[in-house]
Amino acid sequence: MMEKDQFEDGIWLYCSNSAVRRAARQLGQLYDDAMGDTGLKGTQFSLMSQIARSGESTLKRLAEIMVMDLSALGHTLKPLLRDGFVELIPDEKDRRVKRVRLTDAGAAKQRELTARWTVAQDHFDKAFGKEKSEELRRTLAFISSPEFARAFSGGDEIRGPVPPKGQG
Amino acid sequence: MMEKDQFEDGIWLYCSNSAVRRAARQLGQLYDDAMGDTGLKGTQFSLMSQIARSGESTLKRLAEIMVMDLSALGHTLKPLLRDGFVELIPDEKDRRVKRVRLTDAGAAKQRELTARWTVAQDHFDKAFGKEKSEELRRTLAFISSPEFARAFSGGDEIRGPVPPKGQG
DNA sequence: TCTATTTAGTGGCATATGCCAGTAAATTCC
DNA sequence: GGAATTTACTGGCATATGCCACTAAATAGA
C-alpha cells in the first residue's frame, strides 16, 4: 500500500527532472553505503576514477565531460586535495590552466574503493538486469550529452521571455 | 571529436550511479534555467509540487516517498518556509509529528512556475521523445523504489564485512 | 504502572552543485 | 603594438543532500 502510493502519487511520474533526481538520491545512498567507513563517498570515488581515466586532464575539460560546473568541480576537489589523494599540476603552455591527477595515495585509495564499487555494481545489475543496465547507461549518457542539451534548448526560447503557458 | 571523447572515455558508461548523477546534473541545469529569475530553482519547484500533491503530508512520509533523508528535507524546506511559500502544521494526534502544506503565496508561486516547467518538459519530450520519456520515468521510478533497494541490498552483504573483490 | 525501546523532528557538520564576481592570462581585433 | 574581448580558475554565497547526535514524544514490554 505504501509502495502503491509511491507509484501513483508522485510528480516523478510526470517530471523527468524529478525522476532522475529521485533515482540519483536512491543510488547515491546505496553506493555511499557501499563505500562504508572508508572515509570517502560514492561521488568522490567516481571523481577519482574519472580523473584516473582522463589522465592529467585540465580542470575545464574534466568539468565539461562530467557535465559539471567548473567552480563546483573546484569545490568538490577540495577535500581530495586536502587529503592528498589528488594534485594539481600547472600546464606547460598556458599559465591559466591547471591539470589534475591522482597521487600515489589516491591511486591506492581508488583501487581499494573499486573493490567496493564492484560489489555495488554487481548488486545493481542483479536488481535491474545486466543488459538493461548497459542500455540505461547509454540512455543517460545521451541525456547528458551536448547534443541533447542543444535539442532541449532548441531556439533558446526558454532563455528569452517566456509566454505564459500555465496549467493553473 | 570532443563529443566522441565523452561517449568513449567516461566512467558513466560503466557505473550506474555516475551515469544517473551526470544526467541529473545536466537536467538540473536545464530545468533551473527554465525557472529563470523567479527566485526559485527546479528542485524547489519540484518539492512544492510534491507537497501540493501529497496534501498536508507528514515530513517523515514526504521524505520517504521522495526517497530523501528526513533531515535533508528539513534543510531543503528552510528557504521555502523563510520566504512564506510553505508552512508546517502540528499533527492533531501526535505531538512529534509535523505536517507540511503550501501557503496561498506558495500555491500561486507553484502555478507560476508550472508554466515554466511545462515549457521545459515539452522540450525534454521533444529532445527525447514523449513515449520514451514516459518509459524512462517508469524505469527511474523502479530504481527509486524500496523493492529495488531490497533487491540491491539483498542479504545485506554490502553492509557487513566486505570480502576484497578488487579489479586492481 | 513503570522502564526500555523506538520514533519524528531539529541542528550540526561535511560534501555536492551551481550562479556570480573578480583576477590573471591568452586571444582577437584594429 | 596596444586595447578590447575572451578564457581558466578561484572564492563567495546559497541550495541540495546525507550521516550523526540529541531531545521530546510515543510505543512496547515486564
List strands and helices in order, with pairings.
The structure is a homodimer of 168-residue chains.
Chain A: H1 2-8, H2 16-35, H3 42-54, E1 57-58, H4 59-65, H5 70-82, E2 86-90, E3 98-102, H6 104-128, H7 130-143, H8 146-153
Antiparallel strand pairs in A: 1-3, 2-3
The first copy, chain A, binds a DNA duplex (30 and 30 nucleotides) through residues 21, 25, 28-29, 32, 41, 43-44, 58-60, 68-76, 78-79, 94-98.
Question: Could you describe the 3D structure shown?
Answer:
2 copies of one chain form a homodimer. Chain A is mostly helical and 168 residues long. Chain A has one domain (7-152): Winged helix-like DNA-binding domain superfamily/Winged helix DNA-binding domain (Arc Repressor Mutant, subunit A). Helices cover 64% and strands 7% of the residues of chain A. In chain A, strands 1-3-2 form a 3-stranded antiparallel β-sheet. In chain A, a hairpin with a 7-residue loop joins strand 2 (86-90) and strand 3. In chain A, helix 3 (42-54) packs across helix 6 (104-128) and helix 4 (59-65) crosses helix 5 (70-82). The two termini of chain A are 30 Å apart. Residues 1-7 and 156-168 of chain A have low confidence and may be disordered. The interface between A and B is large, with 88 and 88 residues. Chain A binds a DNA duplex (30 and 30 nucleotides) through residues 21, 25, 28-29, 32, 41, 43-44, 58-60, 68-76, 78-79, 94-98.
